[in-house]
């Protein structure tokens, strides 16, 4: 029997036991943080699950099968220098490496090629990025339904595009960016079902000036124009349903002017991105509700510093600010680490430039947050619609359980196992908070989020058993 | 279903899915290879036996769990294909012996 151990790149560095700074995640924030720290001479370790650098936004940037230029667009390829800066620097970059725990004393538990290791860095920056906000509509678990981000990943890393009838549904810039990339690649889109709330433009208006003078404006307008010219866009969608027995057949929708139904092979859902909280939450960084972005984020300051000594969060994992903002926030967090470990490093003089660049690229964000705020109907499902995909728990069951007296998401785990399946709450966490807030008539902040525990990614007993053992560990299992 | 863009470069590798030969590209993850091969679901759920397919493609949803070279509960979107790899769709819970 042949077994394929996880394949690692040929020039694979070994896992060091200690370092000055460990950065978790090789997206824009992590790449910028690691490169900045290495420039100051810090012994820097960059850990990432994927086979190559880039995170999700610059996914497969060094290994995409697509030629540079056309399909993916200039914003994607602009991530190349970030990746290059790290690969040509002194950073020890460990790809295909999973971080499954982080203790308050900053001990990291990692897993690589079937073996586990513990590392003790002096400081840690979490750059774990964002994930797509769950979009729990009826039928969203059917094969044929996928996230827009997922489809974009297939395009970037494998050059794959949907075949057959395709509909995109939801709201947010990514939906239209993906539509433009598909059009560029010659993919036909039957329709875009736009769930942007009817009053959203009015709500966003007070923030419009910043947006009009931001770099996003011109790009956004030309993107919308391009997509509108070629795709039927149905606006003001208030309800969606994926239909089919065992596989997707159609999507039905409602607007103020009536109902519609489109036969489809692929339905791509998206309603914005939210911080990926799991590792920081499990390490003990408190989680706070961000009303403007309608999601939870870790409680860190503007430079990413948390209440746990030496631990920072940078990039979208600390609150959504976009790829360009993430890179600047990565640099800022690295400068804080450098200040602590090498206070005379020349690179520290760059801080004002980084702060200026950050405030420039964050311009217009408040407008986007308001315009693309996910509508309540798509955050608070009802009836048989699945809220927890892993344990297949419906919205109605969650509501009934709240009526029985279940007070919060952590208690709900023991009633229904929500958040206890393999995804560890990543796909249901926000939906559970929203449903419990609605059922109890209180705010999401009052309900709170799951308290997460390590391991934040599954690890096998064999991997755990491979951990190097010290004497006390050996003695602890000795029999008298 | 998904198709490969003609401009996408890359070497081909041969894997098997439930015993049948499937051609993939070296840079594919198992999940990408399954979708490119038109395999409409990669597992059935342990709770109701409902079919599921890859959903997020970034390692967070765990809907693409498959058996790889005899080992169950592998995230298809996080495992790179390799020549000769044996992939099986996963029925219900992971078999404890795997």
TrEMBL record, chain A:
SUPFAM superfamilies: FAD/NAD(P)-binding domain. InterPro entries: BFD-like_2Fe2S-bd_dom_sf (IPR041854), FAD/NAD-bd_sf (IPR036188), FAD/NAD-binding_dom (IPR023753), Metab_Enz_Cyan_OpOx_G3PDH (IPR051691), Opine_Oxase_asu/HCN_bsu (IPR017224), SoxA_A3 (IPR041117). Residues 20-319 form the FAD/NAD(P)-binding domain. GO terms for molecular function: oxidoreductase activity. Residues 391-465 form the SoxA A3 domain. Keywords: Oxidoreductase. It comes from the Bacteria. PANTHER family: ANAEROBIC GLYCEROL-3-PHOSPHATE DEHYDROGENASE SUBUNIT B (PTHR42949:SF3). This is (2Fe-2S)-binding protein. It comes from Azorhizobium oxalatiphilum.
UniProtKB/TrEMBL annotation, chain B:
Keywords: Oxidoreductase. Gene3D superfamilies: 2Fe-2S iron-sulphur cluster binding domain, sarcosine oxidase, alpha subunit, N-terminal domain. SUPFAM superfamilies: 2Fe-2S ferredoxin-like. Pfam families: Fer2_4 (PF13510). GO terms for molecular function: iron-sulfur cluster binding; oxidoreductase activity. InterPro entries: 2Fe-2S-bd_N (IPR042204), 2Fe-2S_ferredoxin-like_sf (IPR036010). The keyword Oxidoreductase applies. It comes from the Bacteria. Transmembrane segments: none annotated. This is Sarcosine oxidase subunit alpha. It comes from Azorhizobium oxalatiphilum. The gene is soxA.
